[in-house]
UniProtKB/TrEMBL annotation:
Keywords: Membrane, Transmembrane, Transmembrane helix
Transmembrane segments: 62-83, 141-162, 168-187
Biological source species: Teichococcus wenyumeiae
Full protein name: Uncharacterized protein
Highest taxon above the source species: Bacteria
Length: 220
């Protein structure tokens, strides 16, 4: 074929490329959930770490991939040697999720990078990034700090540390923080509508369409 591009690759489109990007990690993530439901915390922690490593490793160099592989090997040995500690690690998986999301948003705030929400705004047909770049950068900062703030709160609740008397409080704490973050997400749309009336009404559906479009463009 001219240009050396296989026909299957050329016709895959952004949806196909996105699917190929996430597909390898899905069995590991599903296995982690199944192990957690079966009360097998060690394998759950190992499979979840493998899913994260596989997703991150596609963007890393060879040295970083080898380091990830070594870390997974060490984690597998730890699962066999210290099952009680692996149970603790599995319990703290929500905290790892908080930190990963904070890193996902925060990494785009480095010099020379475009803030994540600015990238999403570029794919919102009704918005003009030139008029709201400062706002989108500040919003990216707020989400980064919010995830960083809930991580120690979740850790304390999951471990039964003060001010929480026992891990039984964890579901309530996780539910309340999820409700607060949902309220923040919805309330920001009201603020954005009032601050930038020229962009029209900001809705969650419109935001999710922009996020999806930006994600597909990233894998185009």
């Amino acid at each position: 074929m001219p240009g050396g591009v296989p026909p299957r690759m050329a016709s895959a489109g952004p949806w196909g490329r996105l699917l190929r990007h996430v597909a390898p990690a899905l069995p590991l993530a599903g296995g982690a959930l199944a192990m957690r439901l079966l009360d097998r915390p060690g394998p759950a922690a190992l499979l979840a770490a493998g899913a994260v490593a596989l997703s991150l490793g596609r963007r890393l160099g060879l040295g970083a991939r080898l380091a990830l592989a070594a870390a997974l090997g060490a984690l597998a040995l730890a699962c066999a040697a210290w099952p009680e500690r692996m149970a603790l690690l599995a319990r703290l998986l929500p905290v790892a999720g908080d930190l990963l999301l904070a890193a996902h948003f925060g990494a785009t705030l480095r010099p020379g990078r475009e803030p994540l929400i600015s990238r999403y705004t570029r794919h919102d047909a009704g918005s003009r990034l030139a008029e709201c770049a400062g706002y989108t950068r500040g919003l990216t900062w707020l989400w980064t700090l919010l995830f960083l703030a809930v991580a120690p709160l979740h850790a304390a609740a999951l471990l039964g540390l003060p001010p929480f008397p026992a891990p039984v409080a964890a579901p309530l704490v996780l539910g309340l923080t999820a409700a607060v973050m949902l309220a923040f997400f919805l309330g920001e749309h009201v603020i954005r509508t009032l601050r930038f009336p020229q962009f029209g009404i900001a809705t969650p559906a419109r935001t999710l369409r922009a996020v999806l479009a930006a994600t597909l463009a990233h894998h185009a």
